[in-house]
Specification:
The protein has about 325 residues and is of the alpha+beta class. The chain contains 7 helices and 16 strands. Strands 2, 3, 4, 5, 6, 7, 10, 11, 12, 13, 14, 15 and 16 form a 13-stranded mixed sheet that branches. The structure holds 2-acetamido-2-deoxy-beta-D-glucopyranose (7 copies) and zinc ion (ZN).
Length: about 325
């Protein structure tokens, strides 16, 4: 049983981006510490002007041809997903072997080492829980892969750099079948080993990142500059939000809001662990130029124009 590997001690040794730098207690659901209070209580940058998440309004997205394909290293390596943790009773976090997993390309400046991924969810099928929304639509869940600029020594330094982190966000959409896909069945099978705050379980050699992202076209994404979505909300993130959702069956989605606790099983379940949408404050969201402006179509347009000019001459 994997449960035998659970160790509270290991939690202290894991790097954490989720709660980095925040000393004041924060929460999602108590009036005394929910996200409306963060800008006052845990100020640092929660009161800043390039905060995340945001609502992406597709009509306002601007084309940027520098948003090319990513290069993903080690995403096919099942030894790169190391441990799953109940991260401070706020989320589920999987630590990654950053000597094996990294990303580059995708309009990023240089290489970023992949350090962890974690999830945001709602409450089963009754309430959606993605952080980003698209034209106001909230997806059931959102996956965040956190990557750190490889030239920087540690997270503390990365959080001081306006592009120190590159977070890859993936929406999760529900399907009506059960136990699908197999990679997510594998991943969620470990949740019952980490119900309590700080619990950790070894998940080595079970799942690869590629298998969790199966079916997603990773060349289509939104890009903007933002922040961590949890205190201390550091404005250090180059955000990538992929347009295609990962498809996961509803029964597996339900496991997050029915298995994970904010402290111990005697207390509340973790539900709706997402921050509300933040002001854009003049920021622009960019994406790949739409297919309407491919070179071939531009050529056809020119031909059509020429034809009309010649016709009227
Ligand atoms: C969040 O806190 C504010 C003020 O403290 C309160 O008015 C609001 O109802 C709270 N919202 C939730 C969802 O708890
Ligand atoms: C945010 O709060 C800090 C103090 O905690 C203050 O120095 C800073 O000016 C505030 N920023 C904004 C944009 O209000
Ligand atoms: C992962 O992909 C790389 C590049 O295509 C390949 O060289 C490597 O053998 C693959 N690793 C695994 C574990 O499949
Ligand atoms: C979540 O959903 C369950 C079942 O639908 C419900 O009993 C529970 O009260 C909900 N929890 C919250 C925090 O809304
Ligand atoms: C991070 O790196 C900086 C610069 O090398 C160093 O001064 C600092 O002590 C390091 N912080 C941690 C937490 O390791
Ligand atoms: C799921 O786990 C089983 C058992 O460890 C493994 O054989 C299989 O390859 C895994 N499948 C995926 C897609 O992760
Ligand atoms: C969390 O659970 C532990 C162990 O049962 C308990 O000692 C502690 O007081 C709890 N913390 C909170 C904030 O409820
Ligand atoms: Zn997140």
């Amino acid at each position: 049983m994997k449960a035998q590997l659970v160790t509270l001690l290991a939690a202290c040794l894991l790097p954490t981006v989720l709660s980095e730098g925040s000393t004041v207690a924060w929460c999602y659901h108590l009036p005394s510490c929910n996200d409306t209070t963060w800008p006052h209580t845990v100020a640092h940058q929660c009161n800043g002007t390039r905060q995340s998440p945001i609502n992406i309004v597709t009509a306002d997205v601007q084309a940027d041809s520098s948003l090319t394909a990513f290069s993903f290293s080690g995403f096919n390596d099942s030894s790169a997903l190391v441990q799953m943790e109940n991260a401070d009773g706020k989320s589920v976090k999987v630590s990654l072997d950053d000597s094996k997993m990294s990303v580059s390309g995708g309009g990023l400046q240089g290489h970023y080492k992949s350090t962890q991924f974690h999830l945001h969810w709602g409450n089963g099928s009754s309430s959606a829980g993605s952080e980003h929304t698209v034209n106001g639509k909230r997806y059931p869940m959102e996956l965040h892969i956190v990557n750190m600029k490889s030239t920087l020594p540690n997270t503390t330094v990365a959080l001081e750099d306006p592009t120190g982190l590159a977070v890859l966000g993936f929406f999760i959409e529900a399907t009506s079948d059960s136990g699908k896909p197999e990679s997510w069945k594998n991943l969620t099978s470990f949740l019952s080993s980490v119900p309590n705050k700080g619990d950790v379980v070894d998940i080595m050699d079970q799942i690869s990142m590629d298998s969790l992202l199966e079916g997603v076209d990773r060349t289509k994404y939104y890009r903007y500059l933002g922040s961590l979505t949890t205190p201390s909300c550091d404005e250090a993130v180059v955000w990538t939000v992929f347009k295609d959702p990962i498809k996961v069956s509803q029964d597996l989605i339900n496991l997050f809001s029915t298995t994970m606790y904010i402290n111990t099983t005697a207390q509340s379940l973790i539900t709706s662990n997402f921050r509300g949408a933040q002001e854009l404050n003049g920021r622009v969201v960019t994406s790949q130029p739409s297919s309407a402006t491919t070179p071939y179509q531009a050529l056809s347009l020119t031909a059509a124009l020429l034809y009309h000019i010649l016709y009227w001459l």
